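Sample entry (292 residues):
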Amino acid sequence: MTETLFKKALVCDDGKSAGDAALSVGRYLSEQLGTPIHVLHAVDIPSAEHVAGDPSEELERRRLFTQGAANWMEERVHGAVSPKCTTSLHLGKPTASVIKTAKEIEADLVVLGPHEKEFLDFGGTQRAIFAGTKCSIWSQPAPLSSIERIVCPCDLSPLSMAALDVARDLARALTIPLHVLSASEPPIFVEPTVMYGDVPTPTYVIESLHEAAEARFNEAMASVNFEDIPGATHEFLIGAPVPTILDMQTPTDLVVMGTRGHTGLTAAILGGTTYSVLKHAKGPVLAVRSAD
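Predicted structure, serialized as tokens:
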């Protein structure tokens, strides 16, 4: 294993289908990569002072609930992931619990299942986690059976090249193929259907832009070390990035993408392309957090 692989993964379990999907990733990472796994179960219930009745009775009720939930969680998690994984139970807002726990255990990866209203508001949680932690996010839409290929969209930006480094290390460690994808979209100011006076924009202008982009991509890929990666390939396609990536992915493909985690405007916390892929992907997506 290399230094770019995960040092500790925080798996978010809601006790339902979303948790089942996240736990399946925890098991996979533990078995295939030896990643230490910590599973968090957060329950948002009112605090004792906000509940009518005898406060001491409410505190006892919460204590019994917490003990029962902790026992249930130990049995569920150790059977689904590994007896070696650690667990914690938080009473409070799930998003805040994820951020707090990630910092405490120094996780570099957070694993989330699909959206479940009772546990996590999927889009808001992703953005809040990126703003409040230094973690990458693994989004798992359904229980993981296997990963047969890694697909890595790459626009040659420093962000996407950093994600490619992670994708290469994962492909080597898992001994699976890696496919690097670049999608080139026609600039809106040279649409061939737009007329300037009586003269249409010549199609060769658009073709030359795509050819130049493809040449840059192929040159960059030629300098990347794909040694020891079985079936490493790269492909340049013309089309909008999000639908191109989604069309390319199968349920057994892991898409590895770069994204930033800076605080600030909500829309800037997750890039538009990465966020759209996370929401609509058929299979797992790993959003690699860049260094701040």
